Amino acid sequence: MRILRVVAILFVVGVAAGVGLFAYYAKDAPTVSATDLKASGGPVVYDKDNKEITKLGTAQTYVQSAKIPQTLKDAVVSIEDRRFYSEKFGVDPIRIAGAAVNNVLGRSNGMQGGSTLTQQLIKLAVFSTKASDQTLRRKAQEAWLAYKINKQYSKAQILEYYINKVYMDNGQYGMETAAEYYYDKPLSKLTLPQLALLAGMPQSPVTYDPYTNPEAATTRRNEVINAMLRDKKITSADAATAKSTAITLGLVKQQKAQQATNATDKIIDPYLVQVIAEVKKKLQVNPYTTSMKIYTNLDMSAQTRLYDIVNSNKYVTFTNNKMQEAVTMTDPNTGAVLAQSGGRKLGNVRLGFNRATRNTRSNGSTMKPLMDYGPAIEYLNYPTSERLSDAPYKYPGTNTSLYNWDKTYMGNITMRKALVQSRNIPAIKTLEKVTIPKSLEFLKGLGINLPQDEQVYASGIGASVSTEKEAAAYGAFANGGTYYKPYYVRKVVTDDGQTTKFDSTGSRAMKSSTAYMITDMLKGVFTAGTGTSAAISGIYEAGKTGTTNYSDAELAANPALNGVGIAKDAWFTGYTTHRVISIWTGYDKATTAGLNYSEQTISQQIYKQLMSYVIQQDGLTNTDWTKPSSVVATTINGTRELYVRGYAPTITREAKSSSSSRSSSTTSSKSSSRASSSTSSSVSSSSQPVQSSSSSAESSEPGTPAASSSSPQQGGRE
């Protein structure tokens, strides 16, 4: 008796504790309104100013209970919750116990879990369907809300809400909407096997998609039919006929891409593609199946202007509608992607191919600061005045000659001039000094990991880098040396109030001296280099052009591409202290058409138009970069040059020989005159690890790089 008494007491205590815990959890349950239950479960997407910009999924067609076929109602109840109509509290203890036993024994007949239809509706309305979120607290709140909903609404209303709210894959919410998508018919016109498929899909919409997984879809449909037969909703003959029907019967041709439903959808499409991908990766959920609010970094004003720039001739004139582009704009101080274009003249395609992230075309000479000169300053302490030889040269270890874009040579020039004038030979010679392994290490710190076949010297003047990756990499130059991985989403808030933040954590990619010296040289690209078409008057900015040429095989396939100055791709990546914009232009089918001289400046024009707009629209300050104490400025041959403190360049000047100038011999005098003319301006500069003097010349005003008589880029790879 004593043992029974103890057991009874423990039982009562356990029940009391359970009730108390349930009550404790239930008191914090969120409220659920009719609007929550009726609204589409698609996530709402917001811009950087917290303004709603779109909802995921297509426009929903809501169907009232009276117009839902009884066959569909029977199918849903049989497969999801056979005791639905007899449940008095919105939960089913028998189902819960059965599911628990099956979970322990590892059994599943693929038909019913522990949640009732009412509980599933609650999940769709206010909770995440993510497996890891099915905690004791969540289950208690779910059961409490199901009880309240069951008391407040009729069974017919609850079933109506459920049928209209479930996700059906391919951006479709609700079974009426799905019927129109998959069969181009309303629910009232569908057959038993078609309705059975729709009833079974909500358990795993992607798995049971009849287009991509017809076998799994058939299996699931037949499970629904068997459940209906078990519950005596159909006859054996009906079941046999339905199960023998091909899953493809009546299916319309799949829409390869969803159609944009309004102007905003077209404008934000490439950005939205990345938002969805980022949410999936971070939360490990399909955003289409979870009710949530997605707060992005999208600058809607800039995105709209960018769309107009590339899709009209109001700001930039494109030669034809086949010419393509990709643009990414970021905040270099956070890594936030603020605007993006993945192509132009794309029609009403939704969630289409995004060239800004998936294009693998070479970035040409925009790679030089990243792979050649940045590492040279970082690891070899090169000054901007480092003397580089622009002379005939072959790629290391080969007999393959490397040429500049203009097929000429400038002789010994400074690193500054080599970069501003985009000379290829000095760039690869610099890379040879740096070594490939060290350069790859530098690139990795900037979020760029070249594939094995591109870990070669030729990549120093162009490799497969997207505008998204390039904008992020150049962001480290803009902010003083910190790399931020580009990101699109700020935070996600589920309907139960759970918040997940997506901020990018910065990592030191280079010394501040490297970032400042590269930026200082790239300023000259706008004033005396290859990027004068991008220059914005009065703005502190830095940037780099890039073009690529055609291979011999491509030229052989289309000799028309061998014309003077025809380029395969044209890039421009420019930045201020507040924004980075990276642009690619070219043709998807590059062997059918190339870019002439004029078209090669379109990327620069896009930069100029977009950067000018955001500076004014967002009220960005025009701020110059601050020289770090680790960098020393000096004047060499009238040009402001920089070096890393402690590694001052060695400068020698050959003066005229006084004895030569006094020579009475005409021949000697002429000879001396020629010698002095050629040597008086000669400067030798190389970095040496010496202690810099406090008397080193410091310039408070940036100097202008020496002008060159060379013309801007003219096709080929530069």
How would you characterize the overall build of this protein?
In the C-terminal section; belongs to the transpeptidase family. This is Peptidoglycan glycosyltransferase. Residues 657-718 have a biased composition (Low complexity). One of its GO terms (cellular component) is outer membrane-bounded periplasmic space. The protein has 718 residues and is of the alpha+beta class. The chain folds into 3 domains: 1-30; 59-244, Biosynthetic peptidoglycan transglycosylase-like (Penicillin binding protein transpeptidase fold), CATH 1.10.3810.10; 299-480 and 512-650, Beta-lactamase, CATH 3.40.710. Helix content is 39%, strand content 13%. The strands form 8 sheets. The protein has a 5-stranded mixed sheet with strand order 2-1-4-13-14, with helices on one face. Strands 6-5-18-17-16 form a 5-stranded antiparallel sheet, with helices on both faces. The radius of gyration is 34 Å and the shape is elongated. The termini are far apart.
- The fraction of residues in strands falls at 5-15%
Any idea what the radius of gyration is? 34 Å
Number of domains: 3
Can you identify the CATH superfamily of the largest domain?
A: DD-peptidase/beta-lactamase superfamily
Q: Mean pLDDT, nearest integer?
A: 84
**Which strand order do you get reading across the main beta sheet?**
2-1-4-13-14
The CATH class designation of the largest domain is: Alpha Beta
Task: Estimate the helix proportion, in percent.
Answer: 25-40%
Q: Could you name the CATH topology of the largest domain?
A: Beta-lactamase
Overall geometric form:
elongated
Instruction: Characterize the biggest β-sheet.
Output: 5 strands, mixed
Low-confidence blocks of residues: 15-19, 107-113, 652-684, 688-716
Supply the helix-strand structural class: alpha+beta
CATH architecture of the largest domain: 3-Layer(aba) Sandwich
- What is the tally of beta strands? 22
